[in-house]
Specification:
This protein is about 40% helix and about 20% strand. It is built from 11 helices and 10 strands. Bound molecules: S-adenosylmethionine. S-adenosylmethionine (SAM) binds near residues 12, 13, 86, 90 and 219.
């Protein structure tokens, strides 16, 4: 019998969400891989778990303990993976370790539990039957513009993570790409004292953030693009402007917007001609 790698979900705020099975699994393993030994040490002592070795397997050193992990699994011992919050592998370390352990032929299992994306999605009030998780979108440049254009055209509900100091910029960019009328839910501080879900238009979200500066942790849930409706001229021009402002040249801005909206080349090209050329172009 070989051991198992066990991905254990931990609370996203409220310590009461650590499940009895999570505690059992953590107590039963030989090693716990975590992002930060101090942070996880506090959680373990809260749960009355002591005497288990902790090793750092963070974003930069996820595979640093692989030999150690594989050695323990081969000798029949379980190894747990936890992160600072929520489900390992979701915008957190875990994915590469799972792939390496599967590749080495060992079993992987999980103790499911909190994940901010799932809680925000179900609280949004939007369609949960089909959705896309985008995690943190690229911070700048062409990659960001392309991603925003793709998100604007997405029919399914889109879930995003964002840091508080980037919220205003991201809401403004989403409004530019999707139009200010598209609906969004901003879910903050989930499971914590100041839990709040704000629902309304992207335009309203921008106003809200101007009035009440963003604080704490946020998940954004964006309603999908209206089904069956072709992009309007205004949406195409907005998407073209967003692409051009982020440094794309006209040819690639047109290609990106065509791919995202499904609009015909001639139409996107003609609309691009209505945008005055920048002095730098
Ligand atoms: N693995 C985690 C999960 O399962 O949700 C996500 C980790 S990711 C590094 C951290 C991001 O998740 C935060 O920036 C925020 O977008 C979101 N998040 C985590 N906890 C949250 C909470 N209590 N309320 C709202 N968003 C949260």
């Amino acid at each position: 019998m070989t051991g198992r790698l066990v991905l254990v979900s931990t609370p996203i705020g409220n310590l009461g969400d650590l499940s009895p099975r999570a505690v059992e699994a953590l107590k039963a393993c030989a090693l716990i891989c975590c992002e930060d030994t101090r942070h996880s040490g506090k959680l373990l002592s809260h749960a009355g778990i002591s005497g288990i070795r902790l090793a750092v397997a963070d974003e930069h050193r996820e595979l640093a303990r692989l030999d150690d992990v594989l050695g323990l699994l081969s000798s029949g011992l379980d190894v747990a993976v936890i992160t600072d919050a929520g489900t390992p592998g979701i915008s957190d370390p875990g994915m590469r370790l799972v792939a390496a352990v599967v590749e080495a032929g060992h079993q992987v299992t999980a103790v499911p539990g909190p994940a901010a994306l799932v809680m925000a999605l179900v609280l949004s009030g939007f369609d949960t039957t089909r959705f896309v998780f985008e995690g943190f979108i690229p911070r700048s440049g062409r990659e960001r513009t392309d991603r925003l254009t793709e998100i604007a055209a997405e029919r399914r509900t889109v879930v995003l993570y964002e840091a508080p100091h980037r919220m205003e910029r991201t809401i403004a960019d989403l409004a530019a790409a999707c139009g200010g009328e598209r609906h969004i839910a901003m879910a903050r501080e989930l499971t914590k004292l100041h839990e709040e879900v704000w629902r309304g238009s992207l335009r309203g979200a921008g106003q809200r953030l101007a009035e009440v500066p963003p604080r704490g942790e946020y998940v954004l849930v964006l309603q999908g693009a209206p089904a069956g409706e072709a992009a309007t001229d205004e949406q195409i021009v907005t998407a073209l402007r967003t692409a051009l402002e982020s440094g794309a040249d006209r040819r690639s801005a047109i290609a990106t917007v065509m791919a995202a909206t499904g609009a015909a080349k001639r139409r996107v090209y003609d609309l691009a001609l209505t945008i005055p050329r920048d002095a730098n172009e």
